[in-house]
Design goal:
single chain; two-stranded antiparallel sheet; binds adenosine-5'-triphosphate; binds magnesium ion
């Protein structure tokens, strides 16, 4: 095959996000929102430039260091949620804890169950992930991202396929976590009304980011 296709998506972007800040990322389809999240979460490497998280330049980390960073410090909510079908909702939500500690303590279970309840899926915690609706799966995936009490949550349209009530519940929970636990959220959304409720809005256009303040 020929040389790989090179697509320049992001150019000369430079920003800093504070702990406990809530940032909405908006932009047209194909503008580079997922690319940006993947770079911030060390799932993709930038061809040039530097990403530093909690003061650590992530390009200096080896593969173990990166795996620890992704599992312990960063919560991901992907555009497609990827729950494990054979596990229950509670087990799926606890998965990052199983991965880092081998097992979940009773406190971990109680805390994660309470989070599932806050987004309206506590009652199906014991069901297998393939026996619940798409919107319920999405909410479990969001709690999975929060279960390790990460410092940074990268969420790619977390409310994309939720009805307006669930989407409000999820958004409220994310807002409360930023306040209660100082979690930093960076959330891609196509919903302008949700974006306006962020502290700042990053709009990606032609590879560049324009920053504005939210209105609430
Ligand atoms: N694997 C790939 N190979 C080549 N080009 C890619 C690849 N993935 C994405 N792109 C291109 O990079 C650009 C940015 O894609 P990205 O997925 O970041 O967009 P997005 O803003 O998240 O879009 P959407 O809102 O549709 O999810 C697009 O022009 C896309 O076509
Ligand atoms: Mg995308």
């Amino acid at each position: 095959m020929g040389t790989p296709l090179e697509v320049e998506v992001l150019k000369g972007i430079d920003f800093r996000v504070e702990r406990g800040e809530f940032v909405a990322i908006v932009g047209q389809s194909g503008s580079g929102k997922s690319t940006l999240l993947n770079i911030l979460g060390a799932l993709d490497q930038p061809t040039s430039g530097l990403v530093s998280i909690d003061g650590v330049d992530i390009s200096t980390l080896d593969s173990n260091g990166l795996a620890d960073l992704r599992n312990d410090k960063i919560g991901f909510v992907f555009q497609f949620h990827h729950l494990l079908a054979e596990f229950t909702c509670l087990e799926n939500a606890l998965m990052p804890i199983f991965i880092s500690k081998g097992q979940a303590s009773s406190e971990d279970e109680a805390r994660v169950k309470a989070l599932l309840e806050r987004v309206g899926v506590g009652h199906i915690a014991a069901k297998k992930a393939n026996q619940i609706s798409g919107g319920q799966q999405q909410r479990v995936a969001i709690i999975r991202a929060l279960s390790q009490q990460p410092s940074l949550v990268l969420a790619d349209e977390p409310t994309g396929n939720l009805d307006s009530k669930s989407s409000k519940d999820v958004f409220r929970l994310m807002r409360e976590m930023t306040k209660e636990q100082g979690v930093t959220f960076m959330m891609v959304t196509h919903d302008d009304r949700l974006a306006q409720q962020a502290d700042r809005i990053f709009r990606i256009e032609d590879g560049l980011i324009t920053v504005s303040e939210g209105s609430s």
